[in-house]
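Table 4 source record.
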Amino acid sequence: MHKDKAISEYLLNLESKEGKSTNSIKAYSHDLKLYQNYLSKKEIDNIEDVDRTIINSFIAEINGKYAKSTLSRIKTAIRSFHSFLSFRYDIANPAINLQTSRAEKKLPVYCTIAEIERMIDVLPSDDEGFLAKCVIETIYGLGLRVSECCNLKTNQLDLRLKNAKILGKGNKERIVPIPERTVSILKEYMATLRPKWQKKPTNVLFLNKFGKPIYPRYVEKIIKKCAFNAEIDKNLSPHKLRHSYATHLLEAGSDLRTIQELLGHSDISTTEIYTHVSKKHLQEKYLQSHPLANYNIGGHNNENK
């Protein structure tokens, strides 16, 4: 099989069968293009002519040119690609022993509850300020990805039962509760601003002043402007509000499995990053709850001494 045809077929499978996100497919396409160009340079057209030595020489050539996380992703793409071909066409898999180093996970940046309140407080009281408030409350209150917020439809909300049906990555559906305060804000928005800005029939929830659906870049600008005006010295983005949602749930005592379901993570290991809850918070909880927390073992504070 020609390598170009094999790569095209694999990428098509990622989209149609595995339901990978657009960003994931772009990343895999970029990584396999590097691999494809290397094979062309070595005058290898038939994918079955690739062996472990060729793959190792490619990895050696790009080693040092990319960050460790990118290199790990490239290896994963190659291994997944050859695994797909091996399964579908019953051919040898030269990447079966290709080791991928686990990329170091960075702790997520998140806001404190006070910082989120400050961001909302600095919003202007005009229509655009109210839309921004609704968007921030919805992303943080429901723990949404920015794409999920922008694509949210009115028929996905049940404000009476206070829950929303969210369509996540790979068209995976999940039900998330809507906080009481967010319910009130959304009711007001749907009764006042949305009808005012709606130009034609649509069930998209959030519309701008031109009657068009909001988009991720628009939301990102809103959040960065709010953070600047609230004097929050953090590189905030819509996804950081999602981090904040998960972190605050964990700090309040929610278990990881519940947070996994609410966030729509397919793998619990993705959710485990939120176990970075500060030592200070844990210490405070300990001091409040453990009967021996304030007992001096040396006996200096022992009243029965």
